[in-house]
Amino acid sequence: MRFQYLIHALLFATVVLGQTTQCTKPRVRRAWSQMPAADKALYIEAVALGMQRGYHHKFVEIHMEPSSEREAHGCLFFYWHRAFLLAYENMLRSLGNKFACVTIPFWDYGPLGASFIAGSCKNMLDCGTLLRDFGSSLPTGSKGPLMLTANGMRFQTDNCVTSAMTKNFCQSSTAYNSNKCYNCMPRNDWSKVEVPPDVNVLNVYNNILGDVPATLDGVTSGVQYGTHNMVHAVLDSLMGTFASPGDPVFYSHHSTTDALHAIYYNCIVAGSPPANKGRDPRTWSSCRNYVGRTILPSDTITMKVGETGARTTSVWSSTSSVASFFKGLPQKYPDYADTTKLGANSYSYDFTGTTLNSMNKQCSKFRPTAAASFLTAPADTSVNSTDVTKEISWLNQATALASKYYTESRDVNHQVQLMLCVYYNECLGGVFDYSDEFKANFRATTQPPCKRMIDELASGDATIGVIGWEQVMLKNYPCNTPSSKRVRRAWSQYSKADKDTYINAVALAMQKGYHQRFVEMHMDPPSEREAHGCLFFYWHRAFLLGYENMLRSLGNQYACVTIPYWDYATLGAKFIAGSCNNMLSCSTLLQDFGGSLPRGRSTQSRSVNGASFQTDNCVVSPMTQNFCQDTKSWTDKKCYNCMPRNDWSKVAVPPDVNIVNVFNNIMGNVKPTLAGVTAGVQVGTHNMVHAVLDSLMGTFASPGDPVFFSHHAIVDAMHSIYYNCIVRRNPPANPGNDLRTWTTCRNSKGTSIDPKDIITMRVGAPATSIWTATSNPIYPFFQGLPRTYPAYADTSNLGSNSYTYDFTGTALDGMNNLCLSFKPPRAFLQESSLIEDRLNPKKASVYNPDTSSSNQSCIATESNWITEATALAAKVYSEPSDINNQVQMMLCVFYNECLGGVYDYSEEFKKTFRVHSPPPCKQVIDGLARGDFVIGVPGWEATMMKHYKCSSPSSVFA
After folding, report:
1. 94 lies in a domain?
2. Backbone angles phi, psi at 486, to 5 degrees
3. What GO molecular-function term can you cite, just one (predicted)?
4. Position 10 pLDDT exceeds 60
5. In angstroms, what CA-CA distances link 741 with 537, 719, 769?
6. Is it the case that residue 17 has pLDDT exceeding 90?
7. How many structural domains compose the chain?
8. Domain-embedded: residue 77
9. Pair 928, 934: CB distance under 8 Å
């Protein structure tokens, strides 16, 4: 205790001595981009010295102390951080005479957005001079990933960076006192992070003035939950936690955030300042503090210093270790409303040469009722950047165009922001939500502005009402990479060139020894248990993305490859119409993937990664010629070089792939929950396809057959349709706490899976988690993928791994389109995709001319039957689920009586896949036989026979 007391006493004495330095110049903060090299070097030296003397990490303690942090990130966010930054600035100024006039530089990240959208740079590191000057970031995995701790906060990071600024970083007071500092800065690889739309000058403007109420509440909500949060989120690592003041980038980021409030004050308040700042909504807002009491203007700001878990002291106390840095600063929130009224600590911003300059000058004459002039102001001549000038030119044009359709300036601003968000989403890699981990760390309950707008546009809750805006956008910014968005399409809609590319990619993956590694993962017992449990969709979603990333890594010609989905709902339409007779003749995909040989005279015994099974044949084709049954065989060059398959020409198309059953498995006859759709799809459609293909596909070694990935792509697509219909219009703030996106069951250890648990995916021998198996060849393909289940709820919110489905030309198209603005299930059954195509011939014209004619004829027949059968059932039943159930029973009976029968899974399959219930149609037929069910629709048989022939009619259809 005596030793600790002496440390604090000496520290305080040093601080007091250091505080004797004074600056006679006005305190003016400048942009880092506008500082000369000597000033930059001085600031870097000051920060490094602040770390070396043990002051820097004290500010991490303040920011993390629970009662302080609660106020810091509440409604008085600006004022709390204003005091915090001033104290840090005072600390730097205390370090010696040469640092006496140091100010925290602000990060003019407007040019980042301008340069990124213009294509002049590709990522945060490439676009951000400040990030490079502050020590940059090492390439992904050069030292990590690492699990580190800062003042008790544990987090993952790609690396720990040593530079002139960061070489003295200490993670806590304990580490500092024991001389066990990291002496490096935890950072992710920023070269892998795209510049988000939230730093674009237009979005920044709307966050301050253009699209938020002219109140402290309005600007706080706009900046804190938009620009501020997104910068923390994309930088991540230490910056993605409340220990973020450990990274010097924090202070420049918050200096910009503070500058945005200064602009707000100039525009909204300075012309008519309130007599009482604590009673005017332009300068005051109130919320509850840590103990649940409403914060009053007269309350002392809560800021306490002390290591996590140790005793804390108010920074305003003369005994605190940072007292001298806060000495002279106001202790009440309202006093921080105006940066120029802080006595000896007053300061201002110099926006010369930055994207904020025009905004600040124009807003100095702002009137709430007048049209905002910033967006139509001429380019600022003090900004030399061609990219910025180009952006302002586009803003002028887009604003002028929007003004022809909207009169209110806020509406005009909003329309232009919508245009920008759509361009980001379509041409610059996508617009994304915060990660679940970030949401938890920062208590972020709202989406970033652009993500919210894209979702509103998708759900029909918003629209861009400006005709010709796309031409104006493309006149200034070409959409060079629209196809780089990950879009999965049906195999039936692939061109021959696309098919050849995919087949070659899979064959090459087998040749390089990657393909069979995915079999290992799928078969590992703890991994397999989670894969086929209640989180079936999410586990396989991560699995397919890893495989897709692997294919994309094989060469430039494969960089945009996506896994094609198998549109087997169309198979059902063709089979029931009699245009094909079995799985092989009905499926172009099975034929293109190598087909299956005629059944041999005797079955063969094969083994893949230890799974033994019987198979009719082993097929050699361009796709399968390099198949290897396990890694040892690949190493020893003793591969099968053929694919074990049964004779699919002997297998009927099961009713479970018919569109009626598919729809009921997703939404029509199951609960609108993740548990409901999982039970419907996994136990029904998914299992039956594995069962009828059998051989390798009838085992958990099934990823060995490339058919597996296209089968699971459509299974994944079914969940995507479910999400669009049930969840997207009202997405949960926490996907791990909503029955529509979360359910739980036990893992292989018998423990209930928690939303925060790391997904179990192990590979190799001995089995190692793919998230840490850095020496395994397929580890890189999972890097960057989320590691927790809830993050996989939405395919369009997976960062650079986001993707969507194109259902054009398939039997799923109408279902997905109608469900985007969800109606009762009856709506789908009464409006087929074919009807939509007739109304939209332009859309129909994109169908593959080689396959669409026969397919669409079958879909037309099926659609007509569905329409008539549904209308007939609706005369007897009123509930959509009852109508759906009746139509499904009709289909099952027709299969059983006219198409060869309806069957249960084999005993072997039940054992392998742990199946405890029959397929849905088998349950229906058995229930009808027992009298548990009844088809209560008179005349349904005649309606069925009007559309379909019964090749072997029983008494039902005689």
Report:
1. yes
2. -80, 110
3. oxidoreductase activity
4. no
5. 11, 10, 25
6. no
7. 1
8. yes
9. yes
